Amino acid sequence: MNSKGADAFLPSGWRSQRPFLQPVAVICAFCVFAALFFVMGRLDLKRTEGLLMEALRTKAHYVAELIEKSAVEKYRRFTEIGEAGILAWGPPSGEEAFGLYESLADSLLHLAREIDEEDRTKPRFRESLPELAASENLKDIVFLEDPGNVALEAAFLPPGILPRMRALAEGKGTIAVHLLEAIGGKAADGAVGIARQDGKGAVVLVLDTRGLQFWVWRIAIRSALEEEAQPTGDVVYFHMENADGKTLVRAGSLSELELRDCRPGSGEPERPPPFDGRCLQAGDTRFLGMSFPFHEDGKVIGTTRIGIETRGTDLLLAKNRRHIVLWTGVMVLIGFVAMAILYLTQNRHIGRLQAMQDQLRRAERLSSLGTLAAGVAHEIRNPLNAISIAAQRLQREFSPTGAKEAEEFNRISLVIRDEVRRLNSIVEDFLSLPQSSRMELKDQPLEPLLERVLFLTRAEAGFRRVTVEKNWGTPLPRVSMHAGKMEQALLNVLRNAVEAVSESGAVTLSCRELGKSWVSICIEDTGPGIDASRQGQIFDPFFTTKDKGTGLGLAVTREIVLAHGGEIRAESVSGKGTTFEILLPRQEEGKA
Q: Which CATH class is domain 440-585?
């Protein structure tokens, strides 16, 4: 079996060491789904926004129709009171009509008081009376002096008005209202008047038929607005104007001068703003502006502009937007989490497969070495034994009698015996490699083993004047091991360390616990160190830096440590020495 054959059992992606792309594909798929969800959510949000806006438009149209119907009904009842006469009114319509008539009179009297106040406080106010009369649809604004003479009038004073208001100028009353006959068509003009606050004369407002119609519509629409629109709470703007463009009623706290389009970049809308179903904004208030024609008997007599607040709609849409963004983010996050889980899982599987690949390769090497070791043991051991026996007999039975010859003979015999022992050691190392993974492990104390290898190493190091020191505390933990093989592994590393240092050098054997699961055995020397380019090869079989080395010592040591479920690693700094660390799994408490 070769390494190429072992690779055949692995996926081609790992054989070629290409990056694993499945997590990337997963995150791409999640991103695509998230994008589709986001797009569908936006489309659904747009559809919902359209439905909500349509609901607001329908509501605005309903409010406009409701106000129109109520205002027309009130206007008709109002105009009927003049024809029937006030004595013919009867409940409940009579009470309502009287209330409308009272509101009309109060509104005109309030306007007269404002004019009186403005005239007293503003010196040139009377110059603007014609313009004021036109804007309020008044036929005339008259100032009467104390005896009842006309001091100033905005237009031509109709006949019959002055006699009715003379009592106010003479101080015989505070208000005068003469509108009922004009509403019923019995008089051409109506009038209201007030005595001036300074007691000098009176202010009289004169209305013709057209002006009365304007004011009656104003009161009817205002009353309808108060009854029908205010309870809804959503109408933030209301503006009603007649066919001439004059304002009948304006309600709400918003000013047309503050209105702007809600859409970004749309600029300021024209004045007056187009109430064509778009979103308008004034300050912090957003509303939907709608415009509707105002009808009476099928004839358009004005225009109604209504603003329906969109706060509830905006809150609902904002909530939906947050949900869309939130769930899109959740989907993307799930994608990243899935990618991370897949990445970690695949890395774990890749690590396991790579470990299996390493084991297969190691098994191949061991199998090859085992085959070679069996052949070497069979072919070499017997001749080595014969040579060793022959050398012993030669030294014992055929030693020369002369001292000089005997010394030379003994030296040669010792060389032969030493080389035979070295060859036998090589054979033993060959045989140890395939057997290292099949050893029987037993729970044993570690300290006696360390003391034994320390004693054996010191005996050999003494001839080289090398100091071997120990560094560990007591008691040391127990480990599951094969004492003989572990002794062989430690002696291999210690002997290499002793051989690497020069005279007066030092080798330190230390042991310590790493957490609750591992025991670390370190062998540190003060030798010249290992070149960085060779550090990755020191555990390979047959690699050696010594002249007479076999290159099998560290390879055997590594196989023994791996068979114990441990790990061996080396750190070396050129010129400062080398440290070998052996990690062994610690025996768990309570297990023997």
A: alpha beta
